[in-house]
Amino acid sequence: MDAAKEFRNNQKAEKSKKIRLIENAGIATIVGLSILVLALLLGLFIGPGPKSKGGHDTVFFVASGDGASRIAAKLDQENLVRLPLAFKMLVVLTGRGSDFQIGEFEIPSGASPAKILHILTKGAAISHNVTIPEGWTNGMAFERIASSPILGGEMPAMVREGSLAPDTYQVQRGDTRATLVNRMVQAQQRIIDELWLKRAANLPFRSKDEAIILASIVEKETGKADERPRVAAVFVNRLRLGMKLQSDPTIIYGITRGLPIGRKILRSEISQNHPWNTYVISGLPPTPIANPGRASIEAVLNPPDTKDIFFVADGTGGHVFAQTYAEHEANVAKWRAFRAQSENQEQRLEGARGSK
């Protein structure tokens, strides 16, 4: 009896041993397969990607509304990933499906899916510049913004003349035109709000809007930064004395809405009765004639203490100033003589070219 019992126990032990061996082999197989799968996945996720189409960095655009599937397909089209499905799996596993940024991103050739995902969710988008120079009208600014191939969306409604801050603005592909216009309006409002608090006492205008109007005239009268304060002082002095501003750019604005006229102003245009013609109207025109920069706004809000009430071009790109009409007449005579001499030289050069 004891021998039979021992035999049975041995059989059970042998059977248990075989079962444990099978179980251990199964576990080892599962672990091995898991390691293999993990290694394959890691290779797909963090291993180097394929060589891009051009063999160099690729500018990749993520548009508004692009999800993981769409982005994976676009990456595949650009030959930036080996398996689009692997990229989508990586997005799901990392939970970054809602982190994609809109814009253009530079992806190196051979970048791993993990690196591409980091670039598209955490990297800096490529910036582009849109420049609106000082003294441009709203029409000029809107034309440039509308023609930008970087910006999207429709143009917003036209804003009040003078309410756009001239500057160079960084934008990204996918930004909207309306957003940029809003940024420019807000920037101009911040500038006038800040400088208004620092304005001089007893200025001959009472509102921020009037300050912008006068600053726009100063902006169009001179392109020399060091002259803006003195030009501003002339107009401030004229307003205080009740004199007409007599600014040529205001005549042009009434004719072309600020576009270059391409010729001399006619005598008939000097006396033309329109709301912006400061040779006809007293005080300030009803709206700005351009978008003034910060320096021109600052100049009219804090003009230097001078007695100048006249200025005329000096033939070098600047102006000469005067306190009396007699001084001004002498300066005008010099300017006319300089201009006549210049025109004669141009005519001689034209004649010489025509005789060849």
Our Rg estimate from Cα atoms comes to 37 Å
Number of helices: 12
Question: Which structural class best describes the helix and strand composition?
Answer: mainly alpha
Task: Note the beta-strand portion.
Answer: 5-15%
Contiguous low-pLDDT stretches (5 residues minimum) are none
Strand order of the largest sheet: 1-2
Principal-axis shape: elongated
Number of strands: 6
Termini distance?
A: 137 Å
Report the biggest beta sheet as strand number plus sense, adding barrel if it closes: 2 strands, antiparallel
What is the percent of helical residues? 40-55%
What string, H for helix and E for strand, traces the elements in order? HEHHEHEHEHHHHHHEEH
Whole-number mean pLDDT:
87
List keywords for this structure.
356 residues; 3 domains; two-stranded antiparallel ribbon; Dna Ligase, domain 1; mainly alpha; 12 helices
What does this structure look like?
With 356 residues, this protein is mainly alpha-helical. The chain is built from twelve helices and six strands. It has helices at 2-46, 68-77, 84-94, 113-122, 138-147, 177-196, 208-221, 228-241, 248-256, 267-270, 294-301, 325-354; strands spanning 58-62, 103-107, 128-132, 167-171, 310-313, 319-322. The chain has a two-stranded antiparallel ribbon with strand order 1-2. A two-stranded antiparallel ribbon has the order 3-4. A hairpin with a 5-residue loop joins strand 5 and strand 6 (319-322). Helix 7 packs across helix 11 (294-301).
